[in-house]
Write a structure and sequence with these properties.
The complex is a heterodimer of chains A (about 775) and B (about 280).
Chain A (H helix, E strand, L loop, with lengths): L3 H4 L3 E2 L2 E10 L2 E8 L4 E8 L1 H4 L2 H16 L8 E7 L2 E7 L4 E2 H8 L4 H20 L12 E3 L5 E3 L7 H4 L18 H4 L6 H17 L9 H10 L14 H10 L11 H15 L37 H13 L13 H5 L44 H36 L9 H10 L5 H20 L3 H4 L2 H17 L18 H19 L6 H22 L10 H22 L7 H36 L13 H8 L3 H7 L11 H16 L8 H14 L1 H13 L1 H13 L1 H22 L4
Helix pairs in contact in A: 5-8, 5-11, 8-10, 14-16, 14-18, 14-29, 16-18, 18-19, 18-29, 19-20, 19-22, 19-29, 20-21, 20-22, 21-22, 22-27, 25-26, 26-27, 27-28
Chain B lengths: L3 E10 L9 E6 L4 E8 L4 H22 L14 H23 L7 E2 L1 E7 L2 E7 L3 E6 L2 E4 L6 H7 L5 H6 L19 E6 L5 E5 L1 H6 L2 H10 L5 H15 L5 E11 L4 H11 L2
Antiparallel strand pairs in B: 1-11, 2-3, 3-4, 3-5, 5-6, 6-9, 7-8, 7-10, 10-11
Helix pairs in contact in B: 1-2
Classes of the chains: A alpha+beta (about 775), B alpha+beta (about 280).
Chain lengths: ~775, ~280
């Protein structure tokens, strides 16, 4: 709206806008031609952003009118003020020439006499304004224009800027005044009077004479606070040819307490005149050896307190974040009051007192002491105190947690293992050699009679299982759950299949470390570990890598441990599918474990287990296939003379065959009865005889009993149950092997030991690498 | 989400003399978020800045929660997820205000304060810039959690001004940090554990100009058995009676006892935490 282009050519208050001269927060200044007078003027237009604030506008107009009344050669004349076309404007005389700061930049060093001449003019102008009760509020070299004739003119009376100062005014990020020249009382927000301008005159003179700002700092806040707090600098240190009286006068102008300053502008220039007359200071234009360092003087925009404002633009996002992190991560070491403004410490002038250790966040016992709060050390602790404490305390806490939880986990694991082992050894009475592992595991559950201590231990085991799940709610236990569950299972199997070995007898394990049976142990451990990583909600990158490696390792182990001499039939489609399935699920498991979104826990677990299962099935499929073909051949060759019972699918058929009544049929037929032979013994005897007669012709003699069993299952229960039996035996073949050898090599307890260690490691890991 | 049940209430009032309400408040129980923003700038720019601040903040958090928005891995990777979430949201809000401010002359110089609290498990995470405040009432004692980013408070921090003088000072409304003024600004991030029975007050400067810290604490303690909506209104009304020179906004947050979990929730939590 107020961009230069749209304004140019417009007519405001009889002035044609020509070009834009300058722009500031309050508005823009244009060069314009007054049509009636045919004279070049300056038009200042209030920013539309401020134009809607009624209070701001009324102040703008009041003060502008007051200045318009001033008619002084050292003050830029104001011709007209008002509102036109929605714009608030001031028409002022256009001054050719340059600002004092521009002049200083060009000429590097100004002779002292010249400076005094200029400031005498400025002070005279200021004196008139002060008499009318107008305070400039922003005296600085760039607000002093020097005409080509060398006359100073004060511009930019703090017109709109007064707005900010009024009580109850709106919030702003700008403060009236310029940081390098601001009076302490102005910087503190106290009521100011004309003497604040005198301070700024002193600071400006200091700058013009020495080429240095009286105070420099990292940022505006820092500079402002130096104006309030730091001793008045001595300009003679920077410019040695400065007469002593002038240095003293500048220091007097810059006194912190207005009462110690010169009281009026007039008093100042009278003093100057008097002293000059006394000294008859000779103006020596060649006196300019002092090095002039021209800083940039800009309107006081409060910038972020951590950034030196010169570098503000250069500081990229990364730097910002880094600095933010630095602040966030070290609050405990820093005091409560300086965490947000660390630059203060670096200045070294008022280092914050070392504060006592921050109080624990849960118990804020901060006293409300508004009066004393002036001192940095006693400001009521702000939230910084409450920020998380990351210090040595944390490590002590971690160690303590380790000392408490690690033994707890191990003890718990030992109890779980023991109970499940005992349960297993009680149940081992139901184990039938030659049955598959699946049948044997479930045999105790379907047993007709149970011993009382079996019930007791089953209850204990269930409680333990519940305990394992419940313990996962404790963070330290959370990652050990998979290991504990696997440990429970392994202990149960150990009891079931090797009941004669003492619990946790690991005496001779070192001999078998690289045997095929121990391969299964490694498989269980790595799979359990992989599952426990799958079940982590927020996996870190190392965890992801470890997880992927474990998946691959488990698959390889499964492949090796279950590999049999009978190779799978790759020409069959299901075998191919299973093989591809193993690969696919393995890859999916790795994908879900690593690349997928956080929070995916079920999918990688399922994929991993499916992949391991497929691999296992693939490897034993050769054995199962072989068994199935042999059975099929035998069934073909050894036919049963009469209808087999599984063909009689209903009682109806039975009734028809026997021509008996229904209740009679119930009496005479057991649900799995071979109806032609009334007693089970008779039935079995009949079948066995037939099978043994014929089977010997087709299979090796030592396998006959096995196939007699199978064929009995086939004839008594049907082909599907026979197939199940074949698969049960095939699938559990590696485990059967394992069980057989476990009687000697203590493989089960090696496995239990590994899981025990793993539970401990996972617990320690959960404590050491916990997210905070 | 928090393990506690949390009650939210918010009230904003134009005050006695202002023509517009430049404050904006937002509470969201499902996000576990309470925010106060106090806008500044001529025209209606202040309102716009503060409304962008609260809406972008809440919207970003919602998007991050639903997965519609991902926090870049490079964004403050050392902080906890929730801390990154709220900082990311605050930074986006700042960028949105800044770019709006740059887009038009009317909006130029607009800005806003922002004080928001996000709850996560048993912690409250506050993000803060400007002179709105977060108070915490715990065990009958009230403390100010946030530090004002005003020139007056900078002076107080350096011991140049007493807290009492600062409260009366004219430069109290000169902010050293605000949203929308710069492209990148620094937010204060404060994290503290919450306790059953805690009451938090988020307020714009209008509220504490009318009521001292002690007065706020007293009202909160007196009204402790009333519904917090009522207490919230009470606070704003009292402040308006005493001062009323500015817009007054307050968000009240009360931490109730941890809720009993159903079996399903317990199982879900178990699986979510992982083992």
């Amino acid at each position: 709206m107020l961009d230069g282009q749209s304004m140019i050519g417009k007519e405001i208050s009889g002035c044609e806008i020509l070009t834009k001269v300058a722009e500031g927060g309050m508005g823009a200044v244009f060069k314009a031609r007054h049509k009636a007078l045919n004279r070049i003027v300056c038009v200042k237009i209030l920013s539309p952003a401020l134009a809607n604030d009624k209070k701001a506008v009324s102040l703008f107009l009041t003060e502008a009118r007051a200045i318009a009344e001033l008619d002084h050669p050292n003050i830029v004349n104001v011709y007209n003020v008002g509102k036109e076309q929605g714009y608030y404007f001031i028409v002022m005389s256009f001054v050719e020439g340059q600002t004092l700061s521009a002049m200083l930049k060009k000429e590097r060093v100004l002779p002292i006499g010249r400076v005094l001449d200029l400031f005498e003019g400025v002070l005279k102008g200021l004196s008139v304004a002060h008499e009318k009760g107008i305070i400039h509020r922003d005296i600085k070299p760039s607000n002093i224009l020097i005409t080509p004739e060398g006359k100073p003119k004060i511009v930019d009376f703090g017109i709109a800027k007064k707005v900010d100062k009024e009580k109850g005014s709106t919030k702003t990020t700008e403060l009236a005044g310029t940081a390098y020249f601001i009076a302490p009382e102005q910087a503190l927000g106290k009521d100011i009077d004309t003497r604040a301008d005198l301070y700024s005159i002193g600071a400006s003179m200091y700058y013009v004479l020495t080429g240095h700002f009286p105070y420099n700092g990292k940022n505006t806040i820092d500079i402002i606070q130096k104006h309030i707090n730091d001793p008045v600098p001595n300009p003679t240190k920077l410019r040695t040819d400065l007469p002593g009286w002038l240095a003293l006068a500048i220091q007097k102008l810059m006194c912190k307490n207005p009462n110690e300053r010169f009281q009026t502008a007039k008093e100042v220039y009278m003093h100057f005149n008097k002293m000059r007359a006394e000294e008859q200071l000779k103006v020596n234009t060649t006196h300019g050896r002092a090095v002039v360092n021209l800083g940039v003087e800009s309107s006081l925009k409060i910038v972020s307190d951590n950034t030196p404002h010169k570098h503000e633009e250069k500081m990229g996002a990364t730097d910002f974040y880094r600095s933010a992190i630095a602040r966030q991560t070290q609050p405990a070491q820093k005091g409560a009051n300086n965490t947000q403004m660390p630059s203060l410490d670096d200045l070294g002038n008022t280092p914050a007192e070392k504060l006592p250790k921050t109080p624990p966040p849960t118990a804020p016992t901060i006293e409300l002491v508004p009066e004393k709060s002036v001192k940095t050390a006693t400001i009521p602790a702000s939230a910084n105190t409450i920020t998380a404490i990351r210090s040595a305390k944390k490590y002590a806490k971690t160690l303590l947690q380790l000392a408490v939880f690690l033994p707890l986990v191990l003890a718990f694991a030992a109890v779980v293992g023991n109970i499940f082992f005992t349960l297993g050894s009680i149940c081992s009475t139901y184990v039938v050699e030659g049955n598959g592992v699946l049948s044997n595991i479930f045999a105790p559950l379907s047993a007709g009679q149970v011993a009382p201590n079996q019930i007791l231990y089953t209850i204990l085991a269930v409680i333990m299982l519940a305990g394992i799940f419940a313990s996962s709610a404790i963070k330290a236990f959370a990652k050990s759950t998979a290991a504990l569950l696997a440990l429970a299972a392994a202990s149960y199997l150990a009891g079931l299949f090797t009941p004669d070995i003492k619990f946790f007898d690991t005496s001779n394990i070192s001999e078998y470390l690289f045997s095929a049976e121990y391969g299964l142990c490694y498989l269980v451990v790595s799979a359990a570990w992989a599952v426990s990583i799958c079940f982590d909600f927020n996996r870190t990158i190392p965890e992801k890598i470890l997880g992927a490696a474990l998946v691959i390792f488990s698959l390889t182990l499964t492949y090796c441990a279950t590999s049999l001499t009978l190779h799978p039939d790759m020409s069959a489609l299901p075998t191919k599918l299973v093989f591809l399935g193993a690969l696919l699920f393995g890859i999916l498991a790795i994908y879900y474990l690593t690349a997928a979104e956080q929070g995916t826990i079920i999918l990688p677990t399922i994929c991993l287990l499916l992949s391991l299962g497929c691999c296992w099935v693939y490897n034993v499929s050769g054995l199962a296939h072989n068994g199935q073909t042999t059975l099929d051949t035998l069934v073909d060759v050894v036919p049963m003379p009469d209808a087999t019972p599984w063909q009689m699918t209903s009682f109806q058929a039975t009734n028809e065959a026997l021509n008996i009544t229904r209740p009679g049929a119930f009496k005479s037929i057991g649900s799995d009865a071979l109806i032609f032979y009334q007693t089970p013994e008779e039935r079995l005897e009949y079948l066995r005889k037939g099978i043994e007669e014929n089977a010997g012709k087709f299979i090796e003699q030592d396998k006959v009993p096995f196939f007699v069993d199978l064929m009995l299952a086939y004839y008594l229960t049907g082909p599907s149950k026979a197939s199940f039996k074949i698969w049960d035996l095939a699938l559990s073949y590696p485990i059967d092997n394992f069980n057989r050898n476990a009687q000697n090599n203590n493989a089960y307890f090696f496995l239990v030991m590994l899981l025990f260690i793993m539970a401990g490691i996972n617990c320690a890991g959960a404590i050491l690498f916990k997210e905070d | 989400m928090s393990t506690f049940d949390i009650e939210f209430a918010a009230v904003t009032d134009i005050g006695k003399i202002r023509e517009k309400n430049e404050d904006n408040v937002l509470i969201s129980a499902d996000l576990g978020l309470g925010v106060v923003a106090d806008g500044m700038g001529g025209h209606s720019a202040g309102e716009i800045a503060s409304s962008i601040a609260v809406s972008v903040l809440a919207e970003t958090i919602r998007k991050i929660n639903t997965g519609a928005l991902q926090i870049p891995d490079t964004f403050l990777p050392k902080l906890a997820p929730t801390e990154r979430k709220i900082l990311m949201a605050a930074n986006l809000a700042n960028a949105a205000i800044y770019s709006t401010a740059q887009s038009s002359e009317i909006y130029k110089m607009m800005g806003t304060t922002l004080t928001g609290v996000l709850f996560d498990k048993d912690c409250a995470i506050a993000v803060h810039v400007g002179d709105s405040r977060l108070y915490l009432l715990r065990d009958g004692k009230i403390i100010q959690i946030t530090t004002d980013h005003s020139l007056a408070m900078e002076h107080v921090r350096r011991g140049l001004l007493s807290k009492a003088d600062a409260d009366k000072s004219k430069i109290q409304n000169v902010l050293t940090r605000a949203m929308g003024i710069k492209k990148n600004i620094e937010f204060d991030l404060l994290k503290f554990p919450i306790k059953e029975g805690d009451v938090m007050v988020l307020c714009s400067d209008g509220l504490y100009k009318g009521l001292t810290e002690e007065a706020i604490g007293k009202i909160l303690s007196q009204d402790k058995d009333f519904p917090i909506t009522k207490t919230c209104k009470h606070l704003v009304r009292k402040s308006n009676e005493k001062d009323g020179q500015d817009n007054i906004s307050a968000v009240l947050i009360k931490i109730l006892p941890a809720k009993k979990l159903t079996f399903g929730q317990r199982m879900r939590r178990f699986f979510r935490r992982g083992n």
